[in-house]
Amino acid sequence: MTYSRIAGTGGYLPEKILTNHDLERMVDTSDEWIRTRTGIVQRHIAADNEMASDMALYACRKAMAAGGVAAGDIDLIIVATTTPDMIFPSTACILQDKLGIEDCPAFDVQAVCSGFIYALATADMFIRAGKCRNALVVGTEIYSRILDWTDRGTCVLFGDGAGAVVLTQSDRPGILSSHLHADGGHRKILAVPGSICGGKVEGKPFVMMEGNTVFKFAIKVLEEVVYEALAENTLQVSDIDWLIPHQANIRIILSTAKKLGIPMEKVVATLDKHGNTSAASIPLALDIAVRDGRITRGQHVLLEGVGGGFTWGAVLLRW
Ligand code: UT7
C-alpha cells in the first residue's frame, strides 16, 4: 500500500507585529476585550511589498530543509489561499517559479480557513494514487489587505502568515484519513462580497462576518468531524495525542475540547501569537508544535478546520 506522511514542516510570520494595544489606538476596542473574547494578543502584518507567494516561499524552504527534500524533488504544489497575489496566475504557479521548479502540477485551493485541510487531503490522494512522490502543501494569507480597519468586529481577529508541509510517499501511514465538507447554504455568514468588473471593484471587498452565527456553527462541526475521523479509524477520543484546530478563537477551541473531553494539554493553541491566519493557521500551529518537540513520532494528530463557504474538514494522521 502507498501512503503519504509529513516529512517536514515550516512556518513564516512577517516581521511587523500589531498588538492589541496598537489596535486600541485605531478602533474603539481594548486589549482586555480582545484577550478575553478571542485569546489573541498580537498578530503579524505583511510588509507593503510582501505577497502571499513570498511568505509561502519562506515557509516552504523551512519545510523542505526539515524534510531533507530539495526543490528538484517536488512534483506537486498546492497552495491554500483566500488572498492570492493576483487573480491569475495562481499563487502556486508564482511560488513554483520562485522555488525554481520547472515542471510539476501547481494549483491553488480556495476553501478559506479550511483551505489547508482541503489541500492536504488533495495531496494525500495524489500520492496514494501514485501520481506524485513529494508534494508541497501550503497555507498562506494576507488578511490585512481584505480587512476594514474601521470595523472593530473583524479587524482585531485576523493576521498574516504562512505554513507549509512536505508530504511524501511512504509505505506506512502517515495520513490515516481525511474528511471534507461544504455547505454553500451558509455562504453569507462569512464572506468578502466583492468582485472586479470592467476594472472596478464591485461590492465590498472586506471581510464581513456574523460572528455569533459563525461561532456556533464552528463549535458544532468541529466536534462532529472529530467523531467522523475517529469512527473511520476505529479509534477513541483518548487515542488522540494532539488536536490541532483552526486557530480562530480560544473560546471555540476550549469549547470544542471540552465537548470532546480532550484536556487542553493535548490541544495546540498558538493564536495568541498570530491571530486568525485563515488557511495558514493549522500548518503554523503544527510547525510550532513540531519544532518545540511536543509532537513525536508515532503519535496520533488530528488537524481540523472550519471557514467561509461554509467549509470544514479534518485530517487524522500518525506522526
Ligand atoms: O476563521 C473563520 C472562523 N471565524 C470565527 O471562528 C470567528 C467566530 N466568531 C467569534 O470569534 C466571535 O463571535 C467574535 C470574537 C467575533 C465576537 O465575540 P462575541 O462574544 O460573539 O461578541 P459579540 O459579537 O456578541 O459582541 C459583544 C459586544 C457587542 O457590543 P454590545 O452590542 O453588547 O454593546 C459588540 O459591539 O462586543 C462588542 N464588540 C467589541 N467590543 C470591543 C465587538 N467587537 C469588539 C471589539 N472591541 N473589537
| DSSP strand content | 25-35%
Tally the helices.
10
Bound molecules: oxa(dethia)-CoA
The beta-strand count equals 15
User: CATH homologous superfamily of the largest domain - what is it?
Assistant: Thiolase/Chalcone synthase
CATH topology of the largest domain: Peroxisomal Thiolase, Chain A, domain 1
How would you describe what is shown here?
This protein folds into 2 domains: 3-172, Thiolase/Chalcone synthase (Peroxisomal Thiolase, Chain A, domain 1, 3-Layer(aba) Sandwich), CATH 3.40.47; 176-318, Thiolase/Chalcone synthase (Peroxisomal Thiolase, Chain A, domain 1). It starts with a strand and ends with a strand. α4 links the parallel β4 and β5. The strands form 5 sheets. The chain has a 5-stranded mixed beta sheet with strand order 1-7-6-4-5, with helices on both faces. It has 319 residues and is of the alpha+beta class. Helices cover 33% and strands 27% of the residues. α3 (52-67) packs across α4 (91-99). The protein is built from 10 helices and 15 strands. It is globular and about 55 Å long. Oxa(dethia)-CoA binds next to α2, α6 and α7. Oxa(dethia)-CoA binds at residues 29, 33, 37-38, 113, 152-153, 156, 190, 211-212, 214-215, 218, 248-249, 252, 276, 307.
Give a short summary of the structure.
This protein has helices spanning 20-24, 31-38, 52-67, 91-99, 115-128, 152-155, 211-232, 250-260, 271-274, 281-291; strands at residues 3-12, 16-19, 42-45, 76-80, 106-109, 134-142, 160-170, 175-182, 190-191, 194-197, 200-203, 208-209, 242-245, 300-307, 311-318. The protein is α+β, with helices and mostly antiparallel strands. It is globular and about 55 Å long.
